[in-house]
């Protein structure tokens, strides 16, 4: 296979509705998230494990070169959907098993992180998506996390920042072994709490929660619970959201994020770009579910909490956000996000979150 280098953007190759040179994947294009509930998962009853996920490469892509991708425009955001009950969640009371990775000293937030890794060719980008060494790793379980549930609707900005900063410590403790085991470097981001609007190195955002690849930090609007009430109504809702955003940080630090965007843009057609974006987003759902699984014992997440976690995932499917059941969006339908959130909750094997070899119907 030829080693195709990154190239300049062909004339007129910007995605529809996106100025040339700008990243097409940013904030939710359908406006502030609306509360909405999807129907039953089409993939089976709660607790049923996915089947029939044979390896499958993404659809063939045109080989024409695209713009050089710079991370100073990468904004990936929003929440997640779906998860199903799993038997190894805590049933009340801390686990008696010794916590894993407990001697690891989590570093402080890094405001000047090292540059993100990136592929040198499109062929390397494809391999980083379908056969990334990150997929060969296992998330430690159980892992200690001392964060308590927070009422995001009544918490002050300072309380929110303190809570999310502690959650980032837990996230790094869970993900440090698999990230570094794969030969990459993990970074602990800061969390900035803002109100109606914020301007970052990734651009301007309204009410949202997102990871910015340009500065490798996480942002959270204190109005998100108004836009997506389930975030406030479920005691773990905000943590599920932030674990998803940290999932994007993991994708960035393992070169999955930039590889996915590169190949999506290379295709030169909107449908393929959207498909790559959905695979990226539902993978972050899966990684968030895997984190919740790892810390479920120390957080005393009970089986009765699973329904609320499911509702957080489902609330922001492209179909529930837009109200259009036939939409072809960039984050995934509620049923897809539910499926991948459940997949993460049910396993510690990072490879189960390899959405880039999943069948197309699982990443709609």
TrEMBL record:
It comes from Microlunatus capsulatus. It is a single-pass membrane protein. This is Metalloprotease. Residues 1-65 are annotated as: Disordered. Keywords: Hydrolase, Membrane, Metalloprotease, Protease, Transmembrane, Transmembrane helix. Residues 1-13 have a biased composition (Pro residues). Residues 14-35 have a biased composition (Low complexity). Pfam families: Zn_peptidase. PANTHER family: INNER MEMBRANE PROTEIN (PTHR30168:SF0), PUTATIVE MEMBRANE PROTEIN YPFJ (PTHR30168). The keyword Cell division does not apply. One of its GO terms (molecular function) is metallopeptidase activity. Coiled coil: none annotated. The chain crosses the membrane at residues 66-86.
């Amino acid at each position: 296979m030829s080693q195709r280098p990154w190239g300049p953007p062909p004339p007129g190759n910007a995605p529809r509705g996106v100025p040339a040179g700008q990243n097409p994947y940013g904030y939710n294009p359908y406006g502030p998230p609306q509360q909405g509930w999807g129907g039953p998962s089409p993939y089976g009853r709660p607790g049923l494990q996915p089947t029939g996920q044979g390896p499958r490469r993404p659809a063939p892509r045109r080989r024409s070169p695209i713009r050089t991708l710079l991370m100073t425009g990468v904004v990936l955001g929003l929440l997640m959907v779906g998860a199903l009950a799993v038997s190894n969640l805590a049933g009340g009371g801390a686990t008696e098993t010794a916590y894993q990775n407990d001697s690891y000293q989590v570093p402080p937030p890094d405001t000047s992180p090292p540059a993100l890794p990136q592929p040198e060719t499109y062929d390397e980008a494809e391999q980083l998506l379908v056969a990334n060494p990150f997929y060969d790793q296992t998330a430690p379980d159980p892992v200690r996390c001392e964060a308590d549930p927070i009422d995001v609707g009544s918490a002050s900005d300072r309380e929110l920042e303190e809570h999310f900063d502690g959650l980032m410590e837990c996230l790094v403790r869970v993900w440090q072994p698999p990230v570094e085991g794969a030969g990459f470097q993990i970074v602990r981001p800061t969390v900035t709490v803002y109100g109606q609007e914020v301007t970052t190195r990734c651009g301007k955002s309204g009410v949202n929660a997102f990871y910015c690849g340009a500065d490798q930090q996480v942002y959270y609007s204190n109005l998100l619970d108004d836009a997506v009430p389930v975030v406030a109504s479920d005691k773990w809702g905000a943590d599920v959201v932030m674990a998803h955003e940290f999932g994007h940080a993991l994708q960035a630090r393992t070169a999955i994020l930039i590889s996915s965007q590169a190949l999506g843009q290379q295709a030169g057609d909107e449908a393929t770009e959207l498909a790559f974006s959905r695979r990226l987003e539902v993978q972050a759902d899966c990684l968030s579910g895997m984190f919740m699984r790892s810390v479920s014992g120390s957080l005393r997440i009970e089986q009765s909490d699973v329904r609320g976690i499911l509702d957080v995932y489902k609330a922001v499917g492209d179909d529930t956000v837009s109200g259009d059941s036939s939409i072809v969006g960039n984050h995934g339908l509620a049923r897809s996000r539910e499926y991948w959130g459940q997949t993460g909750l049910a396993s510690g094997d990072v490879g189960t979150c390899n959405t880039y070899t999943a069948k197309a119907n699982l990443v709609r």
